Amino acid sequence: MATVDSETSGVADRAATVALPETERDRERRRIAVLAVPFLVLAAFGAFVPLAEMLRMSTSTSSFAIEGFTLSAYRELFASILAFVPVVGEAVFPETDPVYGSVFWNSLWFGAITTVVSVALGVGIAHALEKYDLPYEGTLVTLISFPISLPGIVAAFMMIVLFGTTGLLSNAFAFLIGVDPNAVALTGQPAGSPLAVLGLFFGYLYSMIPRATFLLRGTYAEVNTDAEEAARSLGASPWETFRYVTLPQIRPGIVGALILTFRTALAIFGTVLVLKALSVVTFRFDQEIQVGFDLPMASALAAVFFAFTLAFTFLGLRYTSAEVAET
Amino acid sequence: MTRSPSQNGPDDTPVDYDTDDTPVDYDTDDTPVGHDTDDDSLRTDGAGGAGGTAETSRAVTGTGGVPAPSAGPLDRLSAAVGRRLLTLIVGLTVLFLIGPVLLTFGASFFENWTGLAPSGSLTLTHWKQALGLTETVGASRGLGTWIVGVPFTGLAVRVPASIAFSMLLALGGVFVNLLVGVPIAYAVTRYDFYGRDLLNTVAVLPIVPGIVLGIAFLRTYPNLPSAIALVIGYSLLKAPYMVLAVQSSFESMDLRQLEESARSLGASWPRTFLSVILPNAKRGIVSGSIICWTLAAAEFNFSYIVYSRGPKPFSLFLFENISNNPFQRAAAAVSIYFLLVAAVTALLRATGERGFSTGGVR
Predict the structure, then answer these.
(1) Which residue range(s) make up the domain with B121?
(2) What is the count of structural domains for chain B?
(3) Cβ atoms < 10 Å from Cβ of B132
(4) What is the CATH number of the domain that holds B330?
């Protein structure tokens, strides 16, 4: 009991010194508190309270108010995810609709492929921008970073411009091989068809390449060029120099870029909403809310999705060699 | 200094080791010991992940001197086309990213676009319709307008209301961001305290995806007007950009010295902060505000879920145009946003930033 008392009085003392500081050190504490309070208030009312309410809502028995307590949304969600697992799922949950399993799976594989491609392209672009003396480099950087400011719906529209039924590239391609543009358009195709997914793939790349490039440019800025020059002058080819000198230095940056770009991929929503090509998790939110108003289910899905992205980002950045370069 | 691309023309192979098997006469007698150790350390680095290939071990351990120039297929290929390939990738990427933007902008001025190229005469109709400056038939997808009388002239001018409203909302988000982001950036840059790293991470990483935050807002504040919910959401979602931009300004200043000089000259701490520190960080604050404003104006995921009534945010107007309207009208609507971003990018470059690259990702 005594320790508890002294602890509480310690906290009270500290609060008192923050409010009425006597020493310079106490005043500094008060300043830090004053500087941090606005952010903490916004984070509390803008993020923590709503997220707590969302958790509570996911266990509600009603879609319109927080009532009762049930885990049925989670039960349905996890049963559906397990039912998606091949062989085992069908045996254990033959009756369950594996729809949530499939949306998570779609988010994961599609996000992984687009991430790997954008980071690979990002490495090439960052390499060229950093190592070669390209003309108008500043303009190139501005142009490549321009799409970062565009929302996903605009990225989707860009794909319609390029690959839609009236799109430039689809029409050019159709003209070259002599078919109807409708047959080769990548947008406006039925959801899940290979052409539609390819269109969405380009839509994701449109948003992700600039972000990956931005991250990798920060990494490249820190590469030790002396070692590269030494390698070259000792007879290493450009490829060997990259493979054995540059790559080991940028590897942590690449891992960091993979993690953050994958995070971006998971959160893309507007592009999917316009192109309607693949049912990923974010697209499922729209159906839960706009089609059948099932707020507990949407909340449960959001909670699981959020927990996953949070765990993935933090564990990834913490337990791999990942480094995110500050630029 | 053999490897300095700037001195070669773009078409040259950068160095001439691999043109032929003419052994470059590096192995002069004075075996450079320094180079040797250099190389060893490099090799261990390289082998760290995947283990060195036979090729390199040959190349490095061969003579104990300078390794022979390597001539595997990849090496020849990289020397011959590596630079051209990467330059081509950069070119194609820029085309892929910027080409459709220019196409959209161009198409919005044409009467119609079928097949490969736009056709018909130039027209401003799509722009007028998108801006809501002319009446459209049926459910108007144009921006709502306010009719504002111009004083002393008796003329009435249509002002695109939705766009004005949306810009105001984004401005509200920036205002909250300034109140919240600048102090926190100063606290984590200037002071060292318990939990600083965690606070820094939370302030700099956009932890909650917009769509999740939107769903969380639905039940939490059911009676909050959409406008206020949007401002809170914008400020929270875009705070990292403000914090990063301001932080980079703070980091370039000697904060402790500035603060202590001002204090020793008799300024109180609040006065020091407001009239010494902040003016010095002006550049970061201005560019952070511009970036936040543009990103908030186009925020879609959160707005789409949360918006329920009242004037529409700009991003929802874009969405309706893209999903429901004829191609050229949508192109005009999207072009409005392009113009905005182009203007903002020019502004940013005037403040010394390169486009949106400040904190662009997180």
Answers:
(1) 111-159
(2) 3
(3) 22
(4) 1.10.3720.10
pLDDT value of residue B11: 41
Q: Does B70 contact chain A (CB < 8 Å)?
A: yes
Find which of A106-120, B56-70, B103-117, B340-354 is predicted with most confidence, using mean pLDDT.
A106-120
Please tell me the predicted confidence (pLDDT) of residue A117: 96
Domain that holds residue A38: 2-57
The per-residue pLDDT for range A192-211, each reduced to its tens digit, is 788 889 999 999 999 999 99
Task: Please indicate whether, in this complex, the C-beta atoms of A269 and B113 are within 8 angstroms of each other.
Answer: no
Cα-based distances in Å from A249 to A242, B74, B324: 10, 21, 49
Write out residues 135-174 of B within 8 Å (CB-CB) of A.
Answer: none
Q: Are residues A107 and A225 in the same domain?
A: yes
Sorting pLDDT into bands at 50, 70 and 90, what band is B158?
low
Two structure tokens written together for B95: 């085309």
Inter-residue contact A264 to A211 (CB < 8 Å): yes
Predicted interface score ipTM higher than 0.95 = no
CA gap A211, A262 in Å, rounded: 11
The pairing of strands B117-122 and B110-114 is antiparallel
With a CB cutoff of 8 Å and minimum separation 6, the contacts of B196 are B187, B188
- Does residue B91 sit in the same domain as residue B237? no
Which of residues 121 through 160 in chain A touch B, CB cutoff 8 A?
A: 121, 124-125, 127-129, 131-134, 138, 140-154, 156-160
